[in-house]
Design goal:
2 copies of one chain form a homodimer. In chain A, about 40% of the residues lie in helices and about 20% in strands. Chain A is of the alpha/beta class and about 375 residues long. The two termini of chain A are about 15 Å apart.
Chain lengths: ~375, ~375
Amino acid sequence: MEKVAVIGIGLTKFGELWESSFSQLFVEAGTKAIEDAGIDGKDIDAIFVGNMSGGRFIEQEHISSLIADYAGLTPLPSTRVEAACASGGLAIRHGIMGILSGFYDIVVVGGVEKMTDVLTERTTQILATAAEQEWEANLGMTFPGLYAMMARRHMHKYGTTREQLAMVSVKNHRNAVHNPYAQFRFEISVDKVLNSPMVADPLRLLDCSPISDGAACIILASKEKAKEFVDNPIYIIGSGQASSSISLHGREKLTVMDSTVNAAREAYKRAKIEPKQIKVAEVHDCFTIAEILAIEGLGFFKVGEGGKATEEGETEIGGKVSVNTSGGLKAKGHPVGATGVAQAVEITLQLRGEAEKRQVDADFGLSHNVGGSGGTAVVHIFSK
Amino acid sequence: MEKVAVIGIGLTKFGELWESSFSQLFVEAGTKAIEDAGIDGKDIDAIFVGNMSGGRFIEQEHISSLIADYAGLTPLPSTRVEAACASGGLAIRHGIMGILSGFYDIVVVGGVEKMTDVLTERTTQILATAAEQEWEANLGMTFPGLYAMMARRHMHKYGTTREQLAMVSVKNHRNAVHNPYAQFRFEISVDKVLNSPMVADPLRLLDCSPISDGAACIILASKEKAKEFVDNPIYIIGSGQASSSISLHGREKLTVMDSTVNAAREAYKRAKIEPKQIKVAEVHDCFTIAEILAIEGLGFFKVGEGGKATEEGETEIGGKVSVNTSGGLKAKGHPVGATGVAQAVEITLQLRGEAEKRQVDADFGLSHNVGGSGGTAVVHIFSK
């Protein structure tokens, strides 16, 4: 594919942001991204926004119009895309298509979710709408339960240990300490994970990403247009998207997330690079097991060896591939619609050399965003 | 823009389809479209689906994955787009971009909504999520109320009469008699409209489109690929999309829907044709006043003259421009996410010469889909 440039990035802090409304969050992230790019509203051709469930979290559908309105960007075309927690990644892909189709030169791609304005029990119910109602959610399955089954099977089949799962969380918390936008900027220990309250055996509280509010935004431009505005564009050189059975029972294996494998294959092919060339990656660690499945599915490690690689420090900053330098969903926070776009923000910072104490030496970076238990996966590959 | 071909179409009946699930509806429409195009699943590259509120109507988000799964089309990329009642039109636009970006050759574009599985009061609440919660819905505004204000202002400013509004409904019911997929296949009279129960003054029950279940699907292909499969492709030669203030109070005028005007301008420009060349149009008549605003905003008639044009029969089948030959939202039914795609199905039938007793002589057709009270509008222009 022809490459597309990231010319601006913006983030809000992630966390329990009771003082900010949904509209304020995306306007904050969007304004930062527009300022970062040094563009004006009149330079923008369209808006894409990833949002999982405005309809249920804040009783507001049609947020494409709301966003254009509050950002002062009407009458620009504004589109919401949704694939549960992969909504942000999907918004990026469709922003790219908007540019490569010739319809647009510069687009704003945002992701936003306001999750803490409802009670926690209700949040769990809302998140369960990303699983199949008929065969999973209505029978009482929630996401910790679904990922717990994947974890249990991975442990059984490959000898992945409970401690290795915990090490994912420990690493991501350690990285988040240096990320000013992260929800949890403190270190934890393996012991602390193993002694945290049980959520769905074998997953404990500190294996699970939190409920968060937040927004993220990037400005995409055609490679010709990018040069008019910035000296340091980062390019998206590959994009992949795949679907899978929405329910776990429809998958061939619990230990391989085939949507990740298929999306990664497309992205590597479009980018014309190999997994081993990726030195920094933001992957979808909604639960610790999810990061293990991700680093295997993306081809960084062989299937079954993700736990061992984590234990051996290969995913630490400066390891074979630095994974979730931002703190990941676990420690940076997981406002579901924003996550995929926030991943792109971190990779852009890394490739610009602006990641400060989290900085990695990399020519290529990757973002990996999952919807539900793997019904959707989106992968993007970035280069300097 | 480069033209894109419609090579297959499929519809379910619209109505209260209690015997069909959400999944069954889109599989039925999709299967018909795939058969109509004479393609196989393996020819398809991606799925786009318009759906307004699966999250609230059937407690299911992530329907992109559900649809790929139930249609047997995993691991294809599958994307839901949403802009309230304009979701279907938006799905078409993004399917076009997917093709013109070079990512895909053939895509399935569907729209689906299952609205009758919740109580009617709840449906009204859910539909109100397309309006701004903070300034409209939370204060008790519902859609009949919003459109009633537009109607009242149009009547005051231009002398549009209560009877003229009724004539929109009478015409659309007359057209629906000949549409086997329509929800209401019976004629009504102006008297009957004027004596139907008041909903929001001046709009009465028979000014309002119904609550419906249904799905629609079209298959889009690049113009090169289309020729491999069909002899009679219909082309989409123009696409326009615009946003506006989500709330009525943010608009300059109540009597001109600026999103329609802006989306139409883009579509005509891309298609390189004039409004007067359009001989058949499906427009967004969620309420009778909406059709008047549409035919003015699309440039078929001068602002303020839509009511008179309707009274004089200029929008009847065979008139200056045949509007809503399918029966429109009013009589064909309005499963919100499906509507924009169903409009494309009708225009394709017309340009193929397959509209039977509704047939119009036309070289160009147009579809016009609105989200909310006009926060989003999408326009597509079709040619033989």
